[in-house]
Amino acid sequence: MDLYQELILDHSKHPAHAGLREPYDAQTHHVNTTCGDEVTLRVNVSGSGEDAQVEDVSYDSIGCSISVASASVLAEEVIGHPVAETLRTFEAMRHMLTSKGQDAGDEEIIGDGVAFAGVSKYPARVKCALLPWAAYTDALAQAGVDISSATTRTGD
């Protein structure tokens, strides 16, 4: 088993920041209808505009090791960071996961997210890895955060 597989398994067995917490500004529930994975995600944001900061992300994730591990990595990569930076992290994850194996990811931007590079070769599993990230951007939008920089890209 390679290091990345071990990293995904470790995040799925010991998910960081798991469990729904208060306070929160928005909560979303997303389901991957292909396989049944589910995630309920809460986001707490302080400030607004360019000063917006992710104070907390909490979640309850039920599903395969990829979706649970992805939620864990998401929480580690966004809590305590400016929203704009987290949206760049989301974009880098999405690009890597939809690259069909052509993008190995940049550890400086996505941290442990690079472990999911191999997932991009399996289209059915890409949805598992992106599920928590889609819930995250949805929760940000529901919290009143401008996520247009993360939703205006084409070509993916």
Automatic annotation (TrEMBL):
GO terms for biological process: iron-sulfur cluster assembly. One of its GO terms (molecular function) is iron-sulfur cluster binding. InterPro entries: NIF_FeS_clus_asmbl_NifU_N. It holds the Pfam family NifU_N. CDD domains: IscU_like (cd06664). Residues 4-128 form the NIF system FeS cluster assembly NifU N-terminal domain. It comes from the Bacteria. This is Iron-sulfur cluster assembly scaffold protein NifU. It comes from Flexivirga endophytica.
